[in-house]
Sequence to fold (1098 residues):
Amino acid sequence: MTRWPSPRRLLALGMTLVPVLTAVLGPALAGLPHAPPGGPYAPSGPHHLLGTDGLGRDVLTTTLQGGRSILLLTLTATLLAYLLGGLAGLAAATGANRLVEQLLLRPLDVVVAIPALLLVSVAAVWLRGEASAMALVIAFAYAPRIARIVHAAALDAAGRGAVEAMRQQRESWACIHLGYIGRAALRPVVADLDTRIVGVLYLVASANFLGLGFGPGSPDWAVTIARNESGLLLQPWSVLAPATMIALLVVGVNLLGDDVLHRPRTARVGAPR
Amino acid sequence: MPLSRRALLTGAAAAAGVVVVGACGAPPDTPPAAPRHGGRLRAVFQGGGSKETLDPHAPRPWVDQARHKALFDKLTELGDDMTPVPRLALGWQANPDATVWRFTLREARFHDGRPVTADDVLASYARILDSAAAGRRGTQLLGELDLANSRALDPRTVELRLRAPVVELPTRLAGTGMAIIPAGTGDFGRPVGSGPFRFESFDAGTSSMLATRFDEHWEGAPYADQLEILSAGLQARGNAVLGGQAHYADDLDPTFARIHEADGAVRVIRAPHSGMQAFAAKVDRPPFDNPDVLGALALTIDRQRLVDVVLAGKGEIGNDLFGKGYQYYADDLPQRPHDPDQARWLLRRAGAENLRVTLNTADAGTGFVEAATLLAEQARAAGITIDLATVDKDTYFADILDNGVLVNESVGAMPIPNHASTHLLSSAAQNVSRYRSPEFDAAYRNAQATGDTGRRTAIYHDMQRRFRDTGGLLVWGHSDWIGATAPALSGAVAAPANTLNWARFDRVWIGAGA
Amino acid sequence: MCARLGWAVGQLSCLALLVFLGTAALSGDAAVTLLGDGYDPGQAARLRARLQLDDPVWTRFGRWLADLCRGDLGRSLVGGEPVGTVIAHAAAPTLVLAGATLLVVVPLAGTLGFAAGVREGSALDRVLTTVTVALYAVPDFVVALLVVALVSVRLRLLPPTALGADGATLLTRPELLVLPVLVLCCQSTSSLSRQVRAGALDALGTGYVAQAVRLGLPRWRVLLRHVAPNAVAPAVQSTARVISSLVGGVLVVEVVFAVPGLASELISAVAARDVPTVQGITLVLGAAVLLVNLAADLVVARVVPRARERA
Fold:
């Protein structure tokens, strides 16, 4: 039976889709009604709906162009981080040997010890706005955190009576570890997915704001916020338009996460497993 | 040809050095009020974290120069047109070929009570030239000084002998890092100078230097009791003066001037002709070794648009020459036009249609990336494709000396001859465009030996004409130096950085100006 | 316990080596950055000789390590100050900022998250979720720019920068702390309260809680004795994470409010290629985060059964 999505989900979808569609379709739409360049921080007018930025570029146009980079980078980095962190965490938790667990987790702690933004700030000098390299560094910075959570959740699951029961019933290793523990660990990890995406998004944005990410001429949302900081009082849209896009994306992903990842949980409370 | 024997200048000239220079955007003229004494003055400058130093011969960020100016004096300082203004020197005279100079010192004391003597001057210059030391900024300017044969004629007369004629010696002595220190100083933990403020304390962690009024300063005691000089980033400097946390904020951006000249929350002071904004094309390698290609690029630049956008209109357009508004500037040369069609024609003639070059840019200077972005757009009109390469900002100025073909360049206020000797001669360390011209070098040496100001000016004009077409420096603008004072501060004047009246806190006072 | 300390030392050594190689591989060196726009090859060569930058990488690392073993972090290449002093100066404002933020965030987020979690779907839960999501949505640097522009510059209510303030000044003049801590709180309260809420929900869903409820234990007792401890486990690890991400937030805040703290010192040291300072700061930060994680693990070991067996 198909059900009409709840208004809440529609809202969440809508909020996510605005920045995502902007990022995907924006570059094609940008500057379609070709507007002559204006003065720096020019007020809103017929040529420039949201005014211009510090370079005299149309704010609407740069906002349309500035989403693709941040979105692509965020998704790639998150995916990579999950891949690396999830595997390491699960392997550590289910490993038969304590030494294996230590060998897997301890090196990760070295990375965890460096706050992500600082890792990026040291690496930034080499990266020079190279998107693929930035994705790797960010994934590298986030993987240990994911590994820790996967590890803790898997440990928790492995400690439950059900596993003991399965062991006694001589279920296969794969069935216990990948099937039960993996699935049990998946919940807190996926419950975290939206926060994770947002975390990476923030890391990318903060790095760009501090001038550690994409080149200063890039139309990227966070870069333009930083570049137009001094014009905030002259043409607020030059900061607010890209900031709104980032905020919409964050709220949308969060609501969507809550909505989608939340539903099975309500059903699960008290339900036999 | 007799060298003009300069009359001994007196203290009156120094007092006259305080000239109000176009304090644009100042509130309507108010009747002058009597200066008030007392109070603690707080000023905030661009800093450099742990790079900041109290060694007056090795200044790095602007905040160092501001601090050193409060604590030390030089023999001379620069006026707004880059002519020398006597400071510790009362006056000077030179022999006809400008190789032997005598400077008479005024009666001045260091903060510890010792008099400033000729020996201190010689010791200071010896320290600057110390070949074992590194990071001394004045080494190049004193390059011709023959220290072994220079001597103190009496405690208040110093004779400097040069290995080659330098008719501009008095302006060179006003350069960055030329402070006079007491002989024998090697450690600047608690610096002692002869400047208007006496060192009190320095906290590197908070980047705060505190100094107190030096009552025995030769120019009279400052009005404020205490002076605190701090450093902070661009936005924080502007916010500090807006939020009443500082009396003066230095080196603000044009957008700040645009906003607050209009709303009057603070007094914006702008000094014109304070910095050269340019692109440097390397003329020793393709494609800009071809004068037609270089000329084409020069014609594609819409200078007015760059000034309007990058400098928010707070500046003037450039004519591919350094030093607009300064002594010896060749202002009779026609303004370089913006003519993309002519540029296309030149490129066709050079066989360089569809030219594609890379512009190495970085956030190493205010407006670098913005200017580069706009140039790339403008060049399209002439069929030139400019790819922007964002390079490392921390090592930018060293990298561009050898690397790339087209780069951003900016130079602060300094006399035109000093710019030539440090940036344009074949031997110059900061010759970014790789201009190498034996004729230009010879003309420079000739000018240094020419005592007559009129004839020397003619030589400098000729050098600039020669340089402009083949030198590789595409000067698109001359920026204003922008600072802001809190309503409580009076007496501040606008002056380009590096000149006498910039960062000068002995002649300003806290208290309503009206 | 000893083994863990051993691991920690090993990790820190790895970190030191990584950071050293990383900074050594950066383009340019301290001599280049020191001379800035007055770069001149001759001067640079002399500076390099004086700073011993011409020595091979391994010699320099060995020298640094040998000094470290004597408890000496070396001297800054650009300022000449002992790195220990630099760190001590810079750490104070950062600690004050981070400490003040945690003092606000932990009780606030704990209470809010737990209250929302145990009444999932209630009006309280919905309001709290909406508010935290909204707060979380605006990047901290945007919040910082906006509060400075509005509260300080326009309304002149609170100082816009912490100009010239060290750690002690921040403590004696709390008005300087209000805006930076406010900015830092927005993000961390939201994320931590969401974690606590998720933890509470998770605990509510476990079999033994259902069992306890079936046995007829009073609700408050179930919540306090069975739900709260299990909600704490992920929350403690999240707090550890919040602390480490706080360092990132602190960086933005330090830049916007001109606080002379550790994070901005690190950035400027990287920019200046001041290798000993970069080394010292990352080592101290690394040690601090390791300690926090160690503490988190110990707390988790007390409340999660299987982890206790292994600890």
In short: The two ends of chain C are 9 Å apart (CA to CA). Chain C touches chain B through 54 residues (CB under 8 Å). The first helix of chain C runs from residue 2 to 24. Confidence is low (pLDDT under 50) at residues 306-311 of chain C.
